[in-house]
Design goal:
The protein is mainly beta and 221 residues long. Helix content is 11%, strand content 32%. The strands form 6 sheets. Strands 6-9-12-15-18-21-23-24 form an 8-stranded mixed β-sheet, covered by helices on one side. It has a 6-stranded parallel β-sheet with strand order 7-10-13-16-19-22, with no helix packed on it. A 5-stranded mixed β-sheet has the order 3-4-2-1-5.
Length: 221
């Protein structure tokens, strides 16, 4: 059983501690966080040992428990550690099809399903009961909140966030750094960096984009 450190004191860290305890695939020996006020305290009975940067001096494997996709990617870039330092955690109740590819450093919580030919990028987080159907592909540092569902052949870029109980129609593409709000039904592609929400989902805000065939530019609807 490999020993692991969780990077960041967070709600995700609390959930990961519980998930690992139920599954028994790792032994959580500590947490690291840059908030000095937390050093010497405990989370779920696990001690907070010091700042994130001491990860490079430790020998345990690591799991990034920073909740936001962009922030998780920033911590990984800042630490600059090889992928071999990172663990991967999958709750024992998860179903991953034999053709599923799971990126290093990912955390997959209870009840998730990936059916066939699914690719999950590095350091992705799948909260409980996420459903990924055939030929879906998630970029690195993706975050899918509880109950998110992707129909077949959906492609996402890096650092994407898909909110609780949102649904994405088949054959769509979500660009890097985009956000789909909770409870949304997405029926069209999302360009990079934009935030959409609603049923059907519409643009809330994001980088100015050109509407296909019109030349019209917008940042908000």
């Amino acid at each position: 059983m490999a020993k692991v450190l969780l990077l960041a004191v967070s709600g995700l860290a609390r959930e990961t501690i519980e998930s690992i305890a139920q599954t028994g695939d790792h032994e959580v020996v500590g947490l690291l966080d840059d908030n000095a006020a937390l050093h010497g305290s405990e989370l779920g009975g696990i001690p907070v040992l010091g700042p994130l940067d001491i990860a490079a001096q430790r020998t345990e494997q690591l799991l990034l428990c920073v909740g936001k996709s962009v922030a998780r990617a920033a911590v990984a870039a800042r630490l600059g550690l090889p992928e071999s330092r990172y663990a991967t955690h999958v709750h024992s109740s998860v179903f991953l099809g034999a053709s599923t590819q799971l990126g290093t450093g990912s955390i997959v919580l209870a009840g998730c399903v990936a059916t066939a030919n699914v690719k999950i990028g590095r350091h992705s987080v799948l909260m409980p009961h996420v459903l990924l159907t055939h030929d879906d592909s998630l970029g690195d540092f993706s975050t899918l909140a509880a109950g998110a569902t992707l129909a077949g052949n959906v492609r996402t870029g890096d650092r994407v966030y898909i909110g609780t109980n949102s649904t994405v129609r088949e054959n769509l593409t979500l660009g890097d750094d985009c956000v789909l709000g909770m409870g949304s039904a997405l029926l069209q592609d999302i360009p990079p960096g934009q935030t959409w929400a609603g049923a059907p989902a519409q643009l809330l805000y994001g980088p100015t984009s050109v509407q296909p065939g019109t030349g019209a530019r917008h940042t908000r609807v």
